[in-house]
Write a structure and sequence with these properties.
The protein is α/β, with parallel strands linked by helices. The protein has a single domain, classed as 3-Layer(aba) Sandwich (Rossmann fold), CATH 3.40.50.300. Helices cover 54% and strands 13% of the residues. A 5-stranded parallel β-sheet has the order 2-3-1-4-5, with helices on both faces. The structure holds thymidine-5'-phosphate (TMP).
Length: 208
């Protein structure tokens, strides 16, 4: 009888807009691949054809806060069923740029949807699925706001939120990390990209 392959690692990356996630996402994937692991790199909202279409709407179309939360979970449902769970079961690692913690921080703390309502949806959409570890790039909202202002392109619907919104989101991320210190790794995103990369590499040593 064949021994089943061990389940892959589910790693998520979180942080407020402007925290520098994109650069570190690439570094994270590279560290795992260099360790000989097979990695599925994906993102939310998005990660499937339908999810990417929902992402376009979420980032541009005016909508109520509850519609926004439900669309986040609709995109997530498709992503979990068709990408994340199959990959983990095949023994691949999944590195996901944002997951349900982002909904708790943005639609929960940022926009005021009660956490238990979001937890009910999370339980429906991905019962029993939780990231093995979550890296949080933590940055003061004032610095993130400066970075966003310096961008050349037009800010999307989320990036247009006031600094106070991002402060609530940041605090919520820090609270979530404090609730589950074994899962979260909080990284000071004011450090240089090299220092952040080193911190990620050290943290991952206990997993790979
Ligand atoms: P990104 O720019 O990091 O790819 O994320 C797109 C935006 O979507 C970002 O501003 C955060 C937001 N977002 C939520 O508000 N809730 C969620 O559940 C997710 C996954 C993203």
């Amino acid at each position: 009888m064949k021994t089943p392959r061990p389940r892959g690692l589910f790693i998520t990356l979180e942080g407020i807009d402007g925290a520098g996630k994109s650069t570190q996402f690439e570094a994270l994937v590279e560290i795992l691949r260099a360790a000989g692991r097979t990695v599925v790199a994906t993102r939310e909202p998005g990660g499937t054809a339908l999810g990417e279409r929902l992402r376009e709407l979420l980032l541009s179309e005016p909508m109520s806060t509850s519609t926004e939360a439900l669309l986040m979970f609709a995109a997530r449902q498709e992503h979990v069923l068709t990408v994340i769970e199959p990959a983990l079961l095949q023994g691949h690692d999944v590195v996901c740029d944002r997951f349900t913690d982002a909904t708790l921080a943005y639609q929960g703390a940022g926009k005021g949807i009660p956490r238990d309502r979001l937890q009910t949806l999370a339980h429906w959409v991905h019962p029993g699925l939780l990231p093995d570890c979550t890296l949080l790039l933590d940055l003061p909202s004032s610095v993130a706001a400066q970075r966003l202002r310096a961008q050349q392109r037009t800010p999307d619907r989320f990036e247009q939120q006031p600094e106070a919104f991002f402060e609530r989101v940041r605090r919520s991320y820090l609270e979530l990390a404090a609730e589950e210190p074994a899962r979260w790794c909080v990284i000071d995103a004011l450090q240089s990209p090299q220092e952040i990369g080193e911190r990620i590499r050290n943290f991952l040593k206990k997993y790979v």
